[in-house]
Amino acid sequence: MTYPTLPTLAWDGAVYHNPLMNTDEALLPTGGYPTAHAPAMLELPNGDLLCCWFAGTYEGSADIHIVCSRLPKGALAWEAPVEVSGDPARSEQNPSLFFGPDGAVWCMYTAQLDRQAGKDNMQFTSQIRCQKSTDGGRTWSAYETVFPREGSFCRQPIQVLHNGRWIFANWLCTDSAEGLSGDPTVFQISDDQGKTWRQVEMPQSRGRVHANVVELDNGHLAAFMRSREADFIYRSESFDWGDSWSAPTATPIPNNNSSISALRLNSGRIAIACNPTCTPDPVPGKAAWPGLRCPVSVALSEDGGKTFPLIRWMERGEGFMGEENRTNNQQYEYPYLMQSTDGALHLAYAAHTRKGIKYMRFTEADVMGAKRERVGLYNPTAAQSR
């Protein structure tokens, strides 16, 4: 007996439903760039979705720059990406999106100098810049350098707390023999909507980076971090709106020294998207790169991110198992997770070893394994007529 097969996703942005996973999925148009990495998303007030990432030949090269794609509300496909940045002397990386009080979309990103002889990693030269769009991500302004201190790096977006305070997680890269293993986490805090900023450092946070800030209650914050030691995701707390932080401690979720994404859902649960793998022999204070960046999972916590009893593999990749097969799996990494106003969860990550960006839409119930009726973007009749 021959069974029908699912349509193979192509790099054309078309959104299809995957009945095995109960997800809506798409491979975003690559724009012709050979690599894509570090996506971020934003829902606009009109319901359109934006996804931005950095694209070019290779991370750290001067031709790496930020691009942005749009999924109009109700559309069946993501649009081709438009260019956001383009400094010919710097590698522009790690974008995040924020809808500002001025009605513009703010794209914050890092900009480091191109490689130099004998120095492959130039993150210690990075500054943090901002470009804005007032037309829903179609065109972008010239850049402004917001944080000029060299070595400033970012990944997660500006968060607005219930008291109106803005908090923007960063980490500081240095030019040292230990490379990236000693980077500390800092927070840029503004009480005047970004007009002025002051810096707060997280104690004992060297090697704990990519902090995701989640507000658990008024003034009570939790930050979840990538570990350079490739052991676990780490967690720190603040009880004073981010003015001070506890030393990070390990959560039960493994981390492979790759980026994570955390947020508080409408239900009150904490959700974290990550690659739940780690190195078998972590060395304190030493950066490790286990290599395996698959699967992409979403984990749920009901106690503020201390335990995660619910976890689901959303991206299974090629599915090869065991040490001998790790090179047969491609890389699916740097997930970004967001929840839209209708309650749906949206996940984007670099796919097929950075060939492009994959997008998924699902619900909290899908992560928990609850049965539900599908309500998705995919319209079979319209898709057949395309």
TrEMBL record:
Which residue ranges does the record assign to the Sialidase domain?
47-347
Query: What CDD domains does the record tag this protein with?
Result: Sialidase_non-viral
Which Gene3D superfamilies does its entry note?
Answer: 2.120.10.10
- Please name the Pfam families in this protein's record: BNR_2
Q: Which InterPro entries match?
A: Sialidase, Sialidase_sf
State the PANTHER family in the record: BNR/ASP-BOX REPEAT FAMILY PROTEIN, BNR_ASP-BOX REPEAT FAMILY PROTEIN
Write the protein's name. Answer: Sialidase family protein
This protein's species is Ruthenibacterium intestinale
